[in-house]
Amino acid sequence: MVRIADLLAAGPTYSFEFFPPKSEAELNTLVHTLRDLEPLAPSFVSVTYRGGAASRQRTYDLVTGMLHTTSLVPMAHLTCVAHSRLELAEILVDYAKAGVENLMALGGDPPEQLAPGGAAPAEGAPGGAPGELHHAVELVEMARVIGGFSIGVAAHPVGHPASPDLATDRRHLAAKLRLADFAITQFFFEAGEYARLIDELHALGVDRPVLPGIMPITSLASVPRMAAMGAAVPGWMVERLEAAEHRGGAASVRAEGVRLATELCQEVLAHGAPGLHFYTLNRSSATREIYRALGLAPELSTAG
Ligand code: FAD
Asked: What is the set of active-site residues?
């Protein structure tokens, strides 16, 4: 299997995030999305996780299914929340046995909250137990002991909401990233926030690759949800989206959202980002349009 750390060492990576379907309808949507996105030849794809037995199986099935039936390189998300040490070790061993070598090691959110970072929408309580590991860094340590994983961790450009201050969050992130191979950020909308994150990690002596997480805003209705999910849409962006609505309604808002996301991608790449990670929410069209606008779509690159 291909290890993401090796891909990143070889050059920029372009990746997509999905959540495991919970119904026939969601499964159909995902199947169509995968069919649309596979020709873009993403470097890897990642599959989110919610603590608990049902989600554990869904993520495992999707990751192993992708590994064995598609050309995609999958990465499994795993969270500390709601699992004992033993359960987490079992899950890691199961992945290792199935040949899954790419792991996103996360703290996780309490099940009643929406997970930021493009994770699956929340589902029912996973069994009550708060979990024996408290921070993602402990899961990274456990995965290292089991061995063989290429490990990603989450980074929060403006700091994790639970952190007492940004400097403390950066120190914890630096400690976690020293043990991991790479990070993927929570979505953000200002390139300067990504640049600051990279500069501050560098000042702490950490230069591991940090992939910017990109979340296209394709409707005005999604704007208020973004703040609840982890990053508020800045006023200047809302103004551009509203101006687009006045010009041409929903289709125009969507096109402006794709333009804004494309501009953000260009800015972070210009800052030296080692690739891009797209939060797809299991839809393909916005990601495909941004890909095309960036000249990353295969049909455009072969056409020159
Ligand atoms: P941690 O690294 O544990 O950090 C959480 C908080 O604890 C921070 O404030 C940090 O500063 C602090 N901290 C860290 N280490 C220590 C320490 N040693 N001592 C004291 N404090 C410490 N959630 C899901 O449920 N499922 C998913 O699939 C999922 N995928 C995600 C993918 C990405 C790319 C991102 C960015 C987020 C994802 N999330 C997902 C959301 C994530 O689980 C939440 O943001 C969660 O609240 C924090 O996760 P973390 O891995 O950053 O946790």
From this structure: 17
